[in-house]
Every structure is written in C-alpha cells, then in structure tokens.
Design brief:
2 domains; 6-stranded parallel sheet; about 20% strand; alpha/beta; globular; about 325 residues; 11 helices; Rossmann fold; L-2-Hydroxyisocaproate Dehydrogenase, Chain A, domain 2
C-alpha cells in the first residue's frame, strides 16, 4: 500500500468544500489505489457543521481515507500537507467594491501562505479556488517564504470547462472532442476563452463553427458571465462545478498532458511568455510533463483579436495587484 497523500482544504464545510471532499476521499483526485489524509480547515463558527461533514465521511467508510483532521488552526490544518486546496474566502456582498474584497481576502491568504510555508511538506503544491483567486494566489505565494512560486496555482479550469461545453453544444459534438482551449488572464468576467486555437473533433473550431459573430460575441459573454447566470438561476454560486474543476485541475497537474493538447491554470508569470508582465498570476496554456513538472506551452498563435482581449484581462490583474501591494512583501 502506498503512503497517504495529505490534502488540506480550507472552507471545508462550505458548498464547494462539501462537493469536493467526498470525491477526494473516493479516489477521484489521485486514483483508486492512492490513500489520502484530509485536513479540513474552517473558521470557528464553521466547526460545528464541519463536524457533521466529518461524521458523513466516517459513515462512507471510504477504503482510501486514512485520516480526517478538522481544525480552525492553520498550523494544524497545513501540517505535513502535500496539496493545499484553498477554497474558503469571503464572498463579495452588496455595496462592496472589488478593492474591498481584495483587501479582506488578501489578509486571509497572507496568513495561509505563512502557515503553509511553516508547516507543509517539502513538496507542497497549492491551488487557490477562493475568489478573486488569481490575486489571492499571488498574495499567498508572496507570503510563503521559501516555497517556489511555481508551486502555486489559481483555478481557471471552470472557465475552460464552461467554454468547452458551449462549443460542444453549438457544434453538436461531445465536449470530450473539444481540445486546445486556453483561458487567458484572470478568473473574472474579463477572462478570455481562446477559440482561435481550439480544435473540435481535430478540426479548427472556426471551421466547425463558421458563425464568427457568435464566437466573438455570445460565446464569450456566455462563458464570462456564466457564474452570474448560475447565481441568478439557483440563488447560489457555482459549487459542484467549481469542485469538479478543482479536481480536474489537480488531475491535470499530476498526470502528463496528452500529446499536442494543453490545459488552463493560472501560474506565476516571470515575464518570459506571451508578453505577460512579471509578478502576476495569469492563466496561460500549460502542459504537464511529469508529476510535479509543468511548462508553459510556447508558440501558441495570438491573433490581433485575441491580443485585445488578453490586454483587457491583464490590465485588471495589474489593477488588482496594485490594490493589495501592501500585502506582497518586496
């Protein structure tokens, strides 16, 4: 039997956390022969409902689940962790500006970054799901002294999955046949789902879907505003689909990417790729080579239309970084 992988999840009693935990415990994250330990982190008021979640995990009797530790202590929650999934964050409320949200959540991710650096396993990797996830990931990485920034990621896979679904519906082809779709930039309404390099059934998406006006208009706005549409429909934000995208992200980062394809996740930019400024967490086309080793896919064509959209989302990321500059150590 393999040694267990320890996974820490913040906001573990929340909707996304609840949708995530049972899939991890059942083997969806690391496979059917990989035992896991779960360290479930909540704020103090969330500990009682978290205890109910722990009871349910016990009642499932998952063969792969070795240990469950519920806690409100960050040091205990990140002790020995190999993967930190930072799901919990303060949601944006009525009358709250984006800068207010960044400031509130930024302080949360400052402390989490410090606790990860102090307590996690030497091979720890961190995926930030809690919004605004790109800049939260930047803050977390900047405060995790000693951990390479290429171990931190922000989730844009939900946007990729949404975009693939829309293209599949439009073309009448199953979404599994949609490949090479990159999300550029921020996980926000400015992010850009790049249809110009996407393949549908091995053919360019622009050849399969010849309605360019739809691709440049309705397709983009549907994907960019999908989260808001779900809130309007169900009265709550995306939970199961966000948890699924978190699973997809980690699976893609620990398994080699199929030849010729790529996947989307926001990573730390050192300024070397696609004209992205250094010092932001931005989504780009990523290829996983081996477990723990990923690279930016170089040479993906960027059309004039695409560049205009990328410039908009990068501008927002730079503005967000400016809002939280006091939380990013020099």
């Amino acid at each position: 039997m393999k040694d267990p992988i320890t996974v820490s999840i913040t906001g573990a009693a929340g909707q996304i956390g609840y949708a995530l935990l049972f899939r991890i415990a059942s083997g969806a994250l690391f496979g059917p022969d990989q035992p896991v330990n779960l360290r479930l982190i909540e704020i103090e008021p969330g500990l009682k409902p978290l205890q109910g979640v722990v009871m349910e995990l016990d009642d499932c009797a998952f063969p792969l689940l070795r240990e469950v530790v519920p806690t409100a202590d960050l040091n205990e929650g990140f002790r020995g962790t190999n993967w930190a999934l930072l799901v919990g964050s303060v949601p944006r409320k009525a009358g709250m500006e984006r800068g207010d949200l960044l400031g509130i959540n930024g302080k949360i991710f400052t402390g989490q970054g410090q606790a990860i650096a102090k307590n996690a396993a030497a091979d720890v990797r961190t995926l930030v799901v809690g919004n605004p996830c790109n800049t939260n990931a930047l803050i977390c990485a900047a405060n995790a002294d000693g951990i390479p920034k290429d171990r931190f990621f922000a989730m844009t896979r939900l946007d990729e999955n949404r975009a693939k679904s829309q293209l599949a519906k439009k073309s009448g082809i199953h979404h599994s046949q949609v490949t090479n779709l990159c999300i550029w930039g921020n996980h926000s309404p400015t992010m850009y789902p790049d249809f110009t390099n996407t393949l549908i059934g091995g053919k360019p998406a622009t050849e399969v879907i010849t309605d360019r006006a739809w691709l440049e208009g309705e397709f983009l706005t549907t994907v960019q505003k999908r989260g808001a549409a779900i809130i309007e429909a169900r009265g709550l934000s995306s939970a199961a689909s966000a948890a699924n995208a978190a699973i997809d992200t980690v699976v893609s980062l620990v398994n080699p990417t199929p030849a010729g394809d790529w996947h989307s996740v926001a990573v730390y930019s050192d300024g070397s790729y696609y004209g992205m400024p250094a010092g932001i967490m931005t989504s780009m086309p990523i290829r996983t080579v081996t477990n723990g080793t990923w690279e930016v896919v170089e040479g993906v064509p960027v059309s004039e239309f695409s560049q205009g959209k990328i410039d908009i989302t990068v501008k927002e990321l730079l503005e967000e970084r400016e809002f939280v500059k006091d939380l990013i150590p020099a």
